[in-house]
Amino acid sequence: MNKFMKIAYDEAQLGLSEGGIPIGSVLVHQGGVLGKGHNRRIQQKSAILHGEMDALENAGRLSALVYRECVLYTTLSPCSMCTGTILLYGIPKVVIAENTTFMGEEALLRSKGVEVEVLDDSSCIAMMAAFIDKHPELWNEDIGV
Predict the structure, then answer these.
(1) pLDDT tens-digit series, residues 58-111
(2) For 37-51, how does the pLDDT look when each residue is reduced to its tens digit (9 = 90+)?
(3) pLDDT more than 90, % of the chain
(4) Which residues touch 111 (CB under 8 Å, ≥6 apart)?
(5) Cys bridge to 93: 3, 45, 71, 76, which one at CB 3.0-4.6 A?
(6) Which of 87, 14, 1 is CA-nearest to residue 51?
(7) Which residues are catalytic?
(8) Which of 29, 18, 13, 88 has the alpha carbon at shortest distance from 53?
(9) pTM, rounded to two decimals
(10) C-alpha angle with apex 40: 80 to 127, nearest 5 degrees?
């Protein structure tokens, strides 16, 4: 696991320890972390604080030029909402730890020219599978089922 995905994984673990859904994300620009976050929908009673959205929020307001040079690392394949945000801000590359437990909008990202790399990380697969098995109602709420 590379250092940025490790940060995302640690964020996911933090979310789990807070009673939330274990998904973490990191926004990286020129080798430096601009923002990191984790899914906080449960903790903050939020409709939108997925891991990717939290990382972007924590990065703060940035110019379009900066977003266009970023890489977004996420422990799980991005949903429609997070994909839309990636496309809106022109983030050119997304590195995904796993898409076994949930397949997001990777095809849409690719169709819009975003480079998508999937790592098939076994630790992230195990973390999400265990969470989904233990809390299917929270997971279904998070993905809109």
Answers:
(1) 999 999 999 999 999 999 999 999 999 999 999 999 999 999 999 999 999 999
(2) 999 999 999 989 999
(3) 92
(4) none
(5) 71
(6) 14
(7) 52
(8) 88
(9) 0.95
(10) 80
For 122, phi and psi rounded to 5 degrees? Answer: -65, -35
Q: One-letter amino acid identity for 1?
A: M
Tokens of 73: 């690392």
Strand partners, 14: none
Residue with tokens 């640690």: 10
Sign of CA dihedral 70, 74, 78, 79: negative
Beta bridge partners of 24: 38
Helical axes 3-17 vs 122-134, angle rounded to 10°: 20
CA dihedral (139, 140, 141, 145) in degrees, to 10, reads 160
Tokens (6 digits) for 118: 């999937």
